[in-house]
Amino acid sequence: MRGIRFSMAVLLSCGLLSMVATTSTSAHHAFATEFDAERPIEFTGTVTRVELINPHSWIHLDVESDDGTVTSWMVEGGSPNALLRRGIDRNTIPIGAELYVDGYGSRDGENKAVGVDMSFADGSPLFFGGTQRDN
Amino acid sequence: MIRRTIEIMGAVAVAVVLVAPSTLAAQSQRTAWGDPDISGYFTTSSVVPLERPRELGEQEFYSPEEAAARAAARLAPREGPPERDRGTRSDVHYDFDQFGLSQFQNEVATNTRTSIVTDPPNGRLPESVDAAVERREARNEARRGHEFDGPENRSLTERCIVWSSTLPPILPGGYNSNMQIFQSPGYVMIQAEMGDPRIIPTDGGEHAAGNLQQWNGVSVGRWEGETLVVETTNFHEQAAWRGSSKNMKVTERITRIDDSTVEYGFTVDDAETWSAPWSGVYPLAAIDGPLYEYACHEGNYGIANILSGQRAEEARQASGQ
């Protein structure tokens, strides 16, 4: 397994970060019925599978914790149609790529999450957005 | 017509098409078999709201300068990373920009109208009749406390059955707001990207029997000069569009304006819901095809996750945690 970190300290710190205004846009469903605002997640994982499907994309990752345990996560994103229209397909994210995910875990406690902010581990943006981070 | 293209973030292009209101002569483009040619791929995205802001009264149009300024403001790209309110329900969402789904990242047709609704003259939907209010309250009451009992209690959109913006009348959607019109002798197919295709005979045939209900209704068409007129009835009683009844009748009027624009007009007649029929119109601007498959149901992990999340919450509550 590649050098992947899964830091519980980082997870817990998410709720303490600055509070700023936000806007939301209507979508296929209310994401707060699927994911838990009180279960923030933040990790870097290795991409194992990419599903650019509707109504929402899912990216599967293996995530290694500090003690070496590996867990498989699947992370939900947006409808892929606009990506496909611009020539982006599932091969755009190579299997084995390292992806940073900042989001929220599912309400059922499983290893599923919504990716609020996703980028490649080197800080470069995924698709057309994502915060460019300093490593 | 003013057409301009803005390059954003390298690969993403936004085309804003400002269409003068119904002053352009219809072109005499014809299919090989002689029908007016209204076919193509189009965006249904618009910055014009369905209903007019109340303060504008009966003002039907902005000046071209006002309309252009409003469109530019509405379609201004976000600067910097998304603002977030961490730990709140509103933050629990992916980033639309990241997936190219924001309106400014896509092709948008707009015009100088202040609303899509053109009749009543105030540009707003007529008042709901008492029967519509009672239907809505009965639906809400039946659902209250049972929202997560099973998939049948979730919305039709969440269940991948139908989006309200893809029913006739087709209206601007939040994303994937595109449609295709395809013609063959005697038929026209209309498909919104996130909807099912309607295959419409254009022989002016009779409407279906009253007891037949379809999610998108049943459509029959005819040509009136350069305009395709489509009447749709037989809606499903559960597919209530803003509380509409299954007896709603929608009349669409689709006319080629120029090489890159089709005008989409419609009238909604449902005496069991609104106090008067109401009408609207907006331009559809041509985009490059194809239309990408939506295939929502097959990948709808979300509906199972929503229900399993609620079951987990109920288990936590039952255990006193």
Can you characterise this structure?
The complex is a heterodimer of chains A (135) and B (321). Chain A has 135 residues and is mainly beta. In chain A, 8% of the residues lie in helices and 36% in strands. Chain A has two helices and five strands. A five-stranded mixed barrel of chain A has the order 1-2-3-5-4. Chain B has three helices and 13 strands. Chain B is globular and about 70 Å long. Chain B has 321 residues and is an alpha+beta fold. Helices cover 13% and strands 26% of the residues of chain B. Chains A and B meet through β1, α2, β4 and β5 of A and α3 of B.
Task: Write the SSE topology.
The complex is a heterodimer of chains A (about 140) and B (about 325).
Chain A: H1 8-13, E1 35-51, E2 58-64, E3 70-76, H2 81-85, E4 98-106, E5 112-120
Chain B: E1 2-8, E2 12-19, E3 40-43, H1 64-74, E4 108-111, E5 117-119, H2 130-143, E6 178-184, E7 187-192, E8 198-201, E9 218-224, E10 227-233, E11 249-258, E12 261-269, E13 278-286, H3 301-318
Parallel strand pairs in B: 2-4
Antiparallel strand pairs in B: 1-2, 3-6, 3-13, 5-13, 6-7, 7-8, 9-10, 10-11, 11-12, 12-13
Subunit arrangement of the protein: heterodimer
Number of strands of chain B: 13
Considering DSSP H and I runs of 4 or more, what fraction of the residues of chain A is helical? under 10%
Silhouette of chain B: globular
What is the rounded distance between the termini of chain A?
A: 21 Å
Largest interface: A-B, 63 and 56 residues
Tell me the radius of gyration of chain A.
14 Å
> What is the beta-strand fraction of chain B?
25-35%
Structural class of chain A: mainly beta
> What's the story with the biggest beta sheet of chain A?
5 strands, mixed, barrel
| Strand count of chain A | 5
**What is the distance, rounded to the nearest whole angstrom, between the alpha carbons of the first and last residues of chain B?**
63 Å
* Stretches with pLDDT under 50, minimum 5 residues of chain A: 1-25
